Prior knowledge:
five-stranded antiparallel sheet, 16% strand, Aminoglycoside 3'-phosphotransferase, Chain: A, domain 2
Amino acid sequence: MRENWTRADQELTLSESEMQTLLHPVFPNARVLHSQLASGGLSNTNIRVLMHEQKAPVLLRIWTRDASQAEKEFRINSAVHKTVPTPDCFHFSVDNPVNGQPYAIMQWFDAPRLELVAAKLSPGELLQLAKSLGKVLQSIHDYKFSATGMLDNKLKICEPIEIGSAGMIAFARECLIEKRGNSHLSEDFTEKILGFVQHFGPLLDQWKSEPCLVHSDFGGSNILVHDVGKGWEVAAVLDWEFALSGTPLFDFGNLLRPPLGTMQNFAETVAESYTEHGGNLPNDWRRLIRLVDLSAWFDFLSRPNVTNEVVADAKSVIANTIDLFEQN
Length: 328
């Protein structure tokens, strides 16, 4: 699905001299041998840099989309680093001498993205990887909060959010009506969506989970994987800019979008591994993750620079979800 999406804005282009300036706090004598933009991301600027003096490349990450999320992402990466596979961060700054934006010097992983590997694996390899994903998800969700909400740069709740039916109904109206997401939809489809959320939203009130850290973009482009000899495992979880305190269903909904969610026994194996490692899911988790994930698609439609490809996918996913619930 995501393979057809394109960036809504341009990536930052840096000269060798500018990159060397940014690398200076960790590598004061850095001389850039080779650099290239890292593929996969659709928001910020990520540059793989190889230096003459270093055998291993590093990642220059510059927050060009939303600078206010940079410190939060850095703190989350540091907080979970001992239990969740994430890159080492060698340096972080809330600004930089080249263009003033926050940036970090991070470990580079020579590992492919999940979205590029999954379809090429044998059934056994895929299920081994699914077990690793379930374990990693449980490790993320093991970080608890006192309430659900958006996180500030100190990882405190700065904006409480309601994640039950009331919250979903209000969020649907905010995205589709107040923020004009309905400009991409027919009037009939908009009314159908709002009626659907009003009718089925209360299902979310039947399962209460302890507020926990959720990645909120836990999909194939933000998960690096590798073959460790005994099978495929998660190598690193990237890009925590959308992380918040919420329900585990958010991350399951994202991960199990097509095509991963449609691969044989993949979803069930992720869930089994998750619960085996201490996670908790409701009995009807398959339906609830589809319901919860609608919020992400409502948000996509409300963005001012949303691309035609994302709009098309949003309309398809929303329509398919409505059909699924109405048929059962």
